[in-house]
C-alpha cells in the first residue's frame, strides 16, 4: 500500500490582529516508502554530541532564546537550526506553504474562507500527487480547532482514503520540520517588508545569511509539480 504522510504546522491565529500580520500553514509531504530513519538518527546523534539536552527543536523559541533554549548561547542555538536545515536538505520530503495577508482577512469568517479556498486550490493543483496514493495520513497537533475543522473539511471533500491523526512535535521530527519551514516562510515575508525584529536580526548576524542559506535552502525542497 502506498501511503503519503502530511505534517502540518501553522503561524498566526484566528483572533483580532494588529497589522501587518499573516496567517501561514505549512504542509510537509513524506512518501512512506522513502525511509528517513538514517537521517533522523544522524540528527539526533548530532544534537546529543553537541551537548544539547532538549526534547525537540522549536524554531521560533530557538531564535528568540525562549523556554529551554534560554540556557544556550546564540552560537549554540544557531547550531541547532543548522542541524535542522541539514536534516531537511538530506531527507526525501517536500513542502508547501499557504500565506494569508490579514489585511485581506480581518475576521475569523474571512480567514476561514480564504484558507479553505487556498487548501482546495493546492489539492487541485497537485492532484496527481495526492491521487497516486492508496492512503493519505494527515498529522496535526490540533493546536487550533478552526484550522483542524478546515483541514478536515477540505481533505475529506476530496479523498475517501484520508486519515487524520493528532500528533505532537516531540514525537515526530517532521512536525518539527513543518514548524521550521513555517517560521522561515514568515521570516521571508518580514524580511521582504523590512520588519525583522531585533532578536531575528541578531540571530542571523552573518550578511545575507537568512536569505542565502536558510531561505534558499528550503526553496530547493518546495513542492514543484506540473498540473
Task: Produce a short descriptive summary.
The chain contains nine helices and five strands. By secondary structure, it is of the alpha/beta class.
What does this structure look like?
The protein has 227 residues and is an alpha/beta fold. It is 48% helix and 17% strand. The chain contains 9 helices and 5 strands; from the N terminus they run ββαααβααβαβααα. The protein has helices at residues 37-49, 59-64, 74-90, 108-125, 127-130, 145-158, 173-192, 198-203, 209-219; strands spanning 3-11, 22-31, 93-101, 135-140, 162-166. A 5-stranded mixed beta sheet has the order 3-2-1-4-5. Helix 7 crosses helix 9 (209-219). The two termini are 24 Å apart.
Tell me the span between the first and last alpha carbons: 24 Å
**What is the gyration radius calculated from CA atoms?**
18 Å
Q: Which range does the strand content fall in?
A: 15-25%
The largest sheet has its strands arranged as 3-2-1-4-5
Q: Tell me the helix content.
A: 40-55%
| Weakly predicted, low-confidence segments | none
How would you spell out the order of helices and strands? EEHHHEHHEHEHHH
Shape: globular
The residue-averaged pLDDT reads 94
Number of helices: 9
Tally of extended strands? Answer: 5
Strand count, sense and closure of the main sheet?
A: 5 strands, mixed
Secondary-structure-based class equals alpha/beta
